[in-house]
Amino acid sequence: MHGRDDPVRLAVEAGGLYVVATPIGNLGDLSPRARAVLGAVDWIAAEDTRVTRKLFAHANDVVPRGRMLALHAHNERAQGERIVALLQSGATVALVSDAGTPAISDPGAAVVHAARDAGGKVFAVPGPNAAIAALSVSGLALDTFTFCGFLPSTGSARRSAIETLRGAPGALVFYESPHRVVECIDDLCNGLGGARPVVIARELTKLFESVHRCRLDEAAAWLAADADHRRGEFVLIVDAPGQAPAAADIETERVLVELLAELPVSRAAHVAARVCGVDRAHAYRLALALKKR
Predict the structure, then answer these.
(1) Are 105 and 151 in contact (CB under 8 A)?
(2) Residue (of 209, 143, 202) closest to 174 by Cα position
(3) Residues 292/189, Cβ–Cβ less than 8 Å
(4) For residue 151, what are the CA distances in angstroms to 125, 158, 166, 230?
(5) DSSP state of 151
(6) Strand ranges across the sheet with 210-215
(7) How far apart are CA 202 and CA 176, in angstroms?
(8) What is the mean pLDDT for each group of 10 consecutive residues in the chain (293 residues)?
């Protein structure tokens, strides 16, 4: 039996569950070790067997010898029992999701938990992960971050979840679908404050990949500027909360509150900048944020 550190000539261990990361877009990101494992195991548990078969069709040097079974959010616990029985019989199983790393906002965690509870051997075959990929190109300081995954789909539940994160230290990392990204950005802006920087990463490693950084109160305009900005799968990274507002900002906001009751945003910002001695563009951003509130 070859050692687990031999990525190409890998012989899997009897009774082993292999959690295999697959590409999030670029098929070149399928690692040599992942290819070897997928070609060697007895069974492949896939979130969608059709998607995994397409992966094999494009990865010409992966010839799976194992049988496939579907493991998704609706059958994970039942299939978990079946997989544990397979492992206990000495079979080898690879666990894959449609894209990225299983069990990270994807099915798989319950199966891994069941396998470990049963005394099974579980091995990581690491590779692509959308959150880590987005963090690596964000340009943010990332000593601390919180992975939040998908927020609730309904507005009230989403806003409540965001409220609990308001005081969290470090950056916040979210996944979002194209159908809800506009609403999600709006709720993040209102719940966390428009001044916090956000990185909008979409279609990572794919043909139309883009990574855009702006303030939360500018993000809605960027999404609205081009229909393509709202397409694809999203990773949203909200930067860590900054320092408390400076005294000049507190005074400028106090003045703006009074001016906005009588004047348009641009005029109120112009007057506040002269009265408070601050940059006009900065006063304009504060005025926009106050107007939204």
Answers:
(1) no
(2) 202
(3) yes
(4) 27, 6, 14, 17
(5) P
(6) 145-150, 171-176, 234-238, 197-202, 210-215
(7) 10
(8) 49 94 94 94 96 88 85 91 96 96 94 96 97 94 91 94 91 97 96 92 95 94 95 95 66 90 92 86 86 73
